[in-house]
Design a protein that fits this description.
- The structure is a single chain.
- This protein is 61% helix and 3% strand.
- By secondary structure, the protein is mainly alpha-helical.
- The protein has one domain.
- The strands form three sheets. It has a two-stranded parallel ribbon. Strands 3-6 form a two-stranded antiparallel sheet.
Amino acid sequence: MTILDPAEMHTETGPAQHTTGGKPPAPHSFLDKFFQISQRGSTLAREFRGGLVTFFTMAYIVILNPLILGGFSAQNAPTDVAGGWLSAAQVGAVTGLTAGVMTIIFGLIANLPFGLAAGLGINSFLAVAVIHEVTWPEAMGLVVINGILIVLFGVTGARTAIFKAVPKELKAAITVGIGLFIAFIGFVDSGFVRPTAGGPPVQLGNGGSITSIPTLVFIIGLLAMGILVARKIQGGLLIGIVATTILAAVVEAVFHIGPSSASNPGGWHLNTPVLSGQLVSAPDLSLVGHFDLFGSFARIGGLAATMLVFTLVFTNFFDAMGTMTGLAKSAGVAHKDGTFPRLKSAFIVEGFGAVAGGATSGSSNTVYIDSAAGIGEGARTGLASVVTGVLFLGSMFFTPLTSVVPLEVAAAALVVVGAMMMAQIREIKFTKFSIALPAFLTIVTMPLTYSIANGIGVGFISFAVISGASGRARKVHPLMWVVTAGFIIYFARGPINALMGI
C-alpha cells in the first residue's frame, strides 16, 4: 500500500506568498526542498515558531486525557463493565507517545502543519458510554476497528470523493464554524463564559461579572495576543503565550489561587501554573498493545458492537474532515475547490492515528483544531508538525513542565485564532438562501452542540433537502445524498438502538 501518492507530490500549489519577517531558507537546502518551505512562502523560523505554538496550545491533552480515561485508583477512575480501570500515569505516557509519533508521521508524509492527539469527543464517549458495556481493552479494540475502516476509506479514495462532493460554500461554512467553535471553547475553558443553574444556558463569568483572577489573566492574554498579531509582530502568539504564562505563575505565587473545585470555583481550570516536585520521570508504556480486537463482539453481540463502531467512525470521519478543511484554508494551502495538497495521504495517515490510539489505549488520535494557533503564527508545512511531534515525545518525560501553561492561556490563543478563521465567511453567498441557511446552520451548530460532526451533519442534511425541494436536486452530488442518509441514521441512533433492543 502506498500512503504517499506520486501524483499528489507534483500537483501542489503554494498559497499566497508571505514576505514579512524571517529569513527564507536556502532555496536548495534539504529541509526547504523536502517540506517546500519557501514554495509555500514560509521560513524555517516561522515553521519552528508555529510548531512550538501548536504544541503549547495542545499540551493540555497530556494532562486532560488521563483525567478522562484514567485515575490514580479504582475509586477516582472510570471503571469498565468488569471493574477494570486505567492508570492516569500510564494514559499520560501513551498520550504523549502516540501524539508525538503520529504528528511527526503526518508532517513527513502529508506535509501539513496539523497536530494529532487523542480526540476529546471520542475519549469522552468511551469513558461515559462504551465502558459500561465492555472492558477497556475491548473498547480500545473497537477504536482500532474504527481506525482500520477509516484507513480503508482513505486508501480506496472514498473519503477523498466525499470531500470533493461537498460544495465549496459548505466547506467555507465548516471553516467559519470551527472558528466560532474554538473561540467558544476558549471562552468556556477560561471561565469567561459559564453555564447557569437557571435562565439562559450560559452567562458572562459568574453572575454576569468577571470575578476570578484566572479569567482576568485570560482577558489580559487575549488582548496582548490580539495587539501583537494586529501589529504584525513576529511570533506574536508565542510571545503572548509565554508572557501570559509568566504572569499567571507570578499571580499564583502571590495569591495562591489553586485549582478550580466545588469549594474554589475561582481557581485555575485543569492545571495550576506552578513548578513543584520532580520535573523528569521515565514514562510507563505498559498500555501499549493492551487491546482486544473482537472481544466486544463476543461480550455484547455483533449488532450492538457494530452500532458502537458506526458511531465512532462517523464522529472520527467527519470531525477530522471538517477540521482539516478549516485548517487548510486557514494555512492558505487550500485550492479554490477546498481541496489541499496530499489530500489522500492526509486522510490515510489520520486514519492510522485512530488505529495507533486504540492500540496504545490512549483513544483515537485525530487532527486538532488547536493547530490553527500554530498556523496563525505562520506555520505552512509539515516541518511545524515535526517540531510539535518531537515536543510531544518529550512531554512523556516532562509532564510537570508541560502543565505549567494554564488552560486559560491556551484559551486566549484559541479565541484569537477563531477570529482569524472567520475571514472565510466572505466565500459564502448569503444572498442565495438555499446556500445561506445550510451554511448558517453548519456555523452555529458546531459551537452550540460542541461538535464539528454535528455541524457538518446538519449542514449536509439541510443542503440536500432544501436543494431537492427547490428543484435543484441534480446539483447535489450523489455522494452527498448517501452521506445525508448516513447522518440521518447517526442522529437517530438513539431511537434505532432502542427499537433494536441494544
